[in-house]
Amino acid sequence: xxxxxxxxxxxxxxxxxxxxxxxxxxxxxxxxxxxxxxxxxxxxxxxxxxxxxxxxxxxxxxxxxxxxxxxxxxxxxxxxxxxxxxxxxxxxxxxxxxxxxxxxxxxxxxxxxxxxxxxxxxxxxxxxxxxxxxxxxxxxxxxx
Length: 144
What we know:
Strand content: 35-45%
Helix content: 10-25%
Number of domains: 1
Largest sheet: 7 strands, antiparallel
Structural class: alpha+beta
């Protein structure tokens, strides 16, 4: 079960690998991204992301971009609270907080281009991980 409190951005072209650091007992290699480079929009529009999210069963979406998705009855309880943030029609970033199985987490990411969509995950202020490093971090958090 992934547990997270993250902000998701589009990965800028000038991101480079930084030096490994330890977060909650997990060794990760964060990205180094120049100040201001996280201002590129995600690959989808606000409306496209909203439409994809609204297809998920048990996901409740508000017109302002906030949403909540909950586990099915009889399943181990999980919940994801999120928010879409746009500038004009472009989706700029997404906040996600809660917990859910990896399969459901991947379904949410599909609304923003998926793990292959060159996403950056801010897991702490100033700590940015690419998709591979975030998946490693989230898996280790689930084990721990």
